[in-house]
């Protein structure tokens, strides 16, 4: 099978668009670059569509690689016929491919193999022919040292027949289809773990049964986690009698003594080979589907988190709150550089609140602080209340910032390289402050799985998860653009065409030669060739450059077009930028060429209207209900402000200012059916919720979205 027809079938996209996109991918072009700067060639495909082509292309390549391995193995056995080769060549999925390979697969020592060595295959063929009325007398001819009597001969023959039945593609598909339609997933608590404290979070699944095809992804992953941790046992159940009768209808052609042995072989094949193999296959397939759902949820959450509202370049005082160990305080410049750090002890057991207030007030004056960021962990509410008691000389906005992953960053190699002379507490506080200024620039330094917005992220396929998350980070970084003169190595690493090594080279060059003054200077970076420049230049921004286009999303390859437009309008390029009236009156058809058409020209004009526009919202101050300090303060019927801090398929979790997040189940998000939680809320959205139920012992809070 050929790649392009395969991609057309599996993506439902036009063949020409796919062919051109594959050509670009084979030239090592990145998804952000292709979707933004090669619209004419791809037929204006977006990142999602190009991503689908990339995924299906990888699946096709894996399939072809497996086909080559299988064909070689069968050919070496001398059993590869033209018909079998054609069947393998035409196969479009791995399951069907493995079914075709099953009869030729090298097996461990099996009952059927032993029976063959004992010379019982001819007897098995006679039984399957179903022509003998007295097969017992025929079996007596096959006795030997390892086959002492007729029953042993017949049993060996049945083992061979069982294997044939197991390897028959039509029967495997029959069982497979019935399992997909009717299999029930059933769980029972492991008796030795019933009273285990850690098992209690899974107690809903101590005695559970439902149709596997209706089991939602989050529940299946929870069940499988409970099984992996040894708290429950899981099995699939089905109406086996119905399936056995269906197999008999396909195999048994006459009612004589052979039929009785075939029935026994069918039952053996089903119980020993077919059901265990295909039920495991189905469970694996269900797990893969659940993984895909969980990864999709995680990816959406991560995208929303990375594109969270930045405060921008402000002088920030950041506080990592704590009780016994105190609150770590850092002062950051508008560019996020650490200017001062120390520790205050306003809370128990030291209770030095007055000294803390005085110190924070003086630091705010000394470093001209414009905003305060407070981590949302232990002692967060108490620290927020303390800060709000301070009468600063100038107005200062106070923000509570998520700490998720800050401790991971503070102990990381990246943090040690950034702050080699400071301990983890200082690095953690710096991370909190920088998250307020620019969530994207700071969060790319942390392993996405540690940011706390996933759903069973440690249970899903880690390779697939990492690939998806990397693509999300790459998409977010390139959609916003990166200031090449301030960006860290981790941030630059995600720029189209750059990668970790070139990112290190960029920063090293910057440190040695000073800030980049133009995009043309980027070519001077060691090992950064024409291809990397082509892929990455438009996503790298240079503030206050001589050429204003260097701080825009206009690709350098299109600068000549902008200059021509400006010349035709009798303006300098700088006068054209932001001149909406002139830009909207331009006849774009005049500037079309073989390589650049209307889609790219529209993008250029849109960028010139508002160059370097940040698509993200601006950060807003938020205040929790000051009367709610612990779960004991929460009462049914209360209306409370909250912030969405995680989204799942079954609802969203909301931070209401205490240790425990509340859950808005999908059924409480709207009065109508909710297909996608993201259509109703987004991560870090500030909302009002109504308390429906409080379970203090289990530390659970049920909420309803209040509109």
UniProtKB/TrEMBL annotation:
Annotated source species: Pseudozobellia thermophila
A single Gene Ontology CC term: cytoplasm
Coiled-coil region: 53-94
InterPro entries reported in the protein's UniProt record: Competence_ComEA_HhH, HHH_9, NA-bd_OB-fold, Ribos_protein_bS1-like, RNaseH-like_sf, RuvA_2-like, S1_domain, S1_Tex
One Gene Ontology MF term: mRNA binding
Keywords in alphabetical order: Coiled coil
Pfam families: HHH_3 (PF12836), HHH_9 (PF17674), S1 (PF00575), Tex_central_region (PF22706), Tex_N (PF09371), Tex_YqgF (PF16921)
Superkingdom as given in the UniProt entry: Bacteria
Protein name: S1 motif domain-containing protein
Domain S1 motif: 637-706
Keyword Phosphoprotein: no
BP terms from Gene Ontology: nucleobase-containing compound metabolic process; translation
